[in-house]
Amino acid sequence: MQFRKNWTRKQLLVAFMLYCQLPFGKLHSRNPEIVKYAELIGRTPSALAMKLSNIASLDPVITSTGRKGLKGASILDQEIWDEMQNDWETFVEEAVQSLNEFSGEQIEKITGIEKESYIGKTRLVETQARVGQNFFRASVMSAYNEKCCISGLAHPSLLVASHIIPWKDDETQRLNPRNGLALSMLHDKAFDLGMITIDENMRVVVSHKYIDEGDAFYNQSIKSFEGKLITLPEKFFPELSFLEFHRENIFEKREFSL
Questions:
Q1: What's the pTM?
Q2: Where are the domains of the chain?
Q3: Which region, left, alpha or beta, applies to residue 158 given φ > 0 means left and ψ of -120 to 50 means alpha?
Q4: Phi, psi of 180 (to 5 degrees)
Q5: Alpha helices of 121-223 — where are they, by DSSP H?
Q6: C-beta separation of 223 from 196 below 8 A
Q7: Predicted confidence (pLDDT) per residue in 196-210, tens digit
Q8: DSSP class of 231
Q9: Is 151 in contact with 162 (CB distance < 8 Å)?
Q10: Residues 216-248: pLDDT tens digits?
């Protein structure tokens, strides 16, 4: 009789990081990323794909769509999910440390994370910041399938994982994908300046501080999206309280000019 080996915490941390950074539609055993990670942590691609499905069963955004076949999360799965939601920075740090230990050397390319020593003391602060930024971007982009949620632009080099509550304003939410929107560079800048925001119904609101009927580009690229429902993510739905913060503290509060 064959006995299934229990998942270790380090293996699960890697699986959770992978879940954050892959679109839901790519959580299958044929995905090259899953094959690569499975070999790294000593699991089969099928086992890792199944674990990712287990993790998805804990995600309220995924389960709210009525997808079937998502079940089997363990008590430890639930514990790590809760830890991740409560402290994203610690989760990312522990997950990257686990990746380093499994690899036995520095990571060459792990879904948005560049090769470097992440647990050494040299340039630790700068390195951790960049790792966090890479994780945040990969997680937000995967949630929105690498498309701007306002315009639908799908060119990765022209997209930004935009913070709803700015990086400098709340360090506890810096790496939380629910504090992110996938936006084009133009709409990211407009969002950052308070020229646009998102209301409680997930519709675009455009500031009236700048009105120039003769500015055809502005009218087409920004003003025309007034009232448009954003494309909602498959996971990591934007936190309503974060959007409220943006509306109350940033929208139409900052000085801007075109």
A1: 0.84
A2: 9-138, 156-249
A3: alpha
A4: -130, 150
A5: 124-143, 185-193, 216-221
A6: no
A7: 999 999 999 999 888
A8: P
A9: no
A10: 999 999 999 999 999 999 999 999 999 999 999
